[in-house]
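[job 0417] fold request received: Elongation of very long chain fatty acids protein
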Amino acid sequence: MMANNRTTYTAKMHYILHQYWVDETDDRIKPYVLIGGGPELFVTLMLLWLIFVVKLGPNLMANQKPFVLRKTLMVYNLILVVINAYFAYTAAKWLDYGFKPWFVGLTARNQLSDKAVAEIPEKIFYFYTKLIDLFDTIFFVLRKKSNQITFLHVYHHFIIPVFGYIAVKLFPQTIMVEVVCFVNSIVHTVMYSYYLLSSFGPWIQPYLWWKRYITRIQLLQFVIYGVAVLMGVYYGLHNDYPIALQWLSIWQPFMFFYMFYRFYVNSYNKNKVQ
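[job 0417] inference complete; emitting structure tokens
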């Protein structure tokens, strides 16, 4: 009896951790690396990144001189400026330049429009770019910028690829993917432009007075996400989709708004929140 129970438990865990994700993935997505099959490779990648930036990397760098990486960062930031500018325009097309209605639920998986199907490769590519963002923290570790590796930073860079993975894998046609891509790409275009310019050295710092406004537009983006999420809850998902994921994501914009607001107040206001 115990052997049968163990076998049943193992089968259930295998289904939850692997087979469910394979079965629920659209056939048009299955050929793509990382998101086509089970989540094992993606989860392993994210856990390795987390271990490195939180524990392994800082320990390895403890007795080492920090890397400068000035030219590397210039190239990296330039690439991300280009990528995010491209996706700001691409997401605008997905949203029909603002004319796509927000007040709809998701269509059934076997009822995707030709337009939605054609957009899948670009949305998967956008998900891949969120993995490129993980190098931000790796560079902080190598440069021994431990003050930058805060809970907010690590959580933000960890959870965004996770939700991107789930969304692109299970319901890539949701308008939330398109809204997040559009708004976040604009924010990141501004943010990485700042990082690119700041890498040119001290002489340019007087011209970067607009740094604090980056956090302000980040706060604005979470307000927009919150509205989009609440609309999704109100109008509901199609029954073909896991409603638990909707409720799992609903609190994220509000939590991010709170954490970024705390960061902004502590960074720029004289009367800091205690």
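[job 0417] notes: The two ends are 57 Å apart (CA to CA). The CA atoms of residues 73 and 199 lie 7 Å apart.
[job 0417] exit 0
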